[in-house]
Amino acid sequence: MALTTSKLNSFLFLKLPSAFICGVRVKSISIEICEATVTHRWINQNPFNSMYFAVQAMAAELTTGALVMNEIQHSKAKISMLVANNKSTFSKKATGKITFICNEGTLVKEGIAKAIATGEGQTFWLKSIGYNQENIQVSEMHFEWTVKVKK
User: Fold this and answer.
1) Which of 7, 68, 103, 112 has its Cβ near the most Cβ atoms within 10 Å?
2) What's residue 151's pLDDT?
3) Could you give the CA distance from residue 148 to residue 123 in angstroms, rounded to a whole number?
């Protein structure tokens, strides 16, 4: 059973309601790329009339985490996943519709394959970049994911 945008958006509604209420939505997912959007609105703004950094982080993390979830599902192994670390860079005010893209599915596949082959936990960093409607980068976020085969 493949992950779809509607399944991921239902997951947001049920398990991550704050992200859903703030307007985070998955727009596309494949084995290699995940794309999510969020639009600057009153509910997700900061005092400086732009999108609050935590809302951007929710959308960015979702693009990386969805790729991990998707690969775990494809592997058919029981694997736990957790964010161990993150770092962010903000380069422009986030206003309007922001699109976050993570295209590092190959890194995910390699990390999960190694965890299955060795039985040891693995860590890998995934990057998600946020772009505004003019296709200008507004933020770049990195998440260190840990995966471990459950015994």
Assistant:
1) 68
2) 83
3) 9
